[in-house]
Amino acid sequence: MYAIIATGGKQYKVSEGDIIKVEKIAGEAGDTVTFDNVLAVSDGSLKVGKDAASASVSGKVMQQGRGRKVIVYKYKPKSGYHKKNGHRQAFTQVKIESIKA
Question: Quick check: 93 and 62 in contact, CB under 8 A?
């Protein structure tokens, strides 16, 4: 059984027991989160759209964190302009516990 959920502007294919990294959502480690925006559910037969609207996926927050640093370097030749900046994207690691179709 698997489901396709949408969160943080991205879509994820998840099954029970999967550990995924999603865009930061509220909650401390150990809290339970519910994903109600389910696009599709497969439990032998695929349910999409209105058929999957009543489905939900629940998971447990494993940790909150920040990803690797990405260096952003802007440069324009012959003008002496350059700017260096770094960015670390925040994420939430979630373990999928149950899928209710």
Answer: yes
Instruction: With a cut of 50, list the residues of the chain below it in pLDDT.
Output: none
Per DSSP, the residues of the chain read -EEEEEETTEEEEEETT-EEEEE--S--TT-EEEE--EEEEESSSEEEGGGGTT-EEEEEEEEEEE---EEEEEEETTTTEEEEEEE--EEEEEEEEEEE-
Q: Which domain holds residue 6?
A: 2-100
Contact 10, 86 (CB under 8 A): no
What total of structural domains would you count in the chain?
1
pLDDT digits (tens, 9 = 90+) for 22-32: 999 999 999 99
Closest to 1 measured CA to CA, from 79, 90, 74, 100: 100
Task: Say whether pTM exceeds 0.85.
Answer: no
